[in-house]
Amino acid sequence: MNEKIKQLRSKAMRLPLEPGVYIMKDKTGKIIYIGKAKKLKNRVSQYFGSQNKHPIKVRRMVENVNDFDYIVVSSEFEALVLECSLIKQHTPKYNILLKDDKGYHYIKIAGTDWKNLSSEKQKLDDGAKYLGPYTSSDCVSKSVAEACKIFRLPTCGKMFPGDINKKGRPCLNYYIKNCAAPCTGKISKKEHNDAVDNAVKFITGGNDSMIKELKRQMEKAAENLEFEKAAALRDSIQAIEKTASKQNVVSQKTKEQDVFAVCESLEKVCLAVLRFSDGRLYDSEYFYTNAIDEMPVIREKLIADYYSMRDNIPPNIAVDGEIEGLEALSQMLTEKRGKNVRIYIPEKGENASLIKLCSDNAAEKLAQHLGRNGKTVAALDELASLLGLDAAPEYIESYDISHTDGADNVAGMIVFKGGKPWKSAYRRFEIKGFSGQDDYRSMAEVLTRRFNEYEKAKHENPSEGFGKKPDLILLDGGIGQVNAVRPVLESFGLSDIPLFGMVKDNKHRTRAIAHGGGEIAINDKRKAFTLVSDIQEEVHRFSVEYHRKKQKKTMTAMTLTEIEGVGSVKAKTLLQHFRTLAAIRKATVEELCEVEGISEKIAINIYKHYHRDEEND
Question: Rounded to an integer, what distance in angstroms lies between the CA atom of residue 319 and that of residue 336?
Answer without folding.
Answer: 19
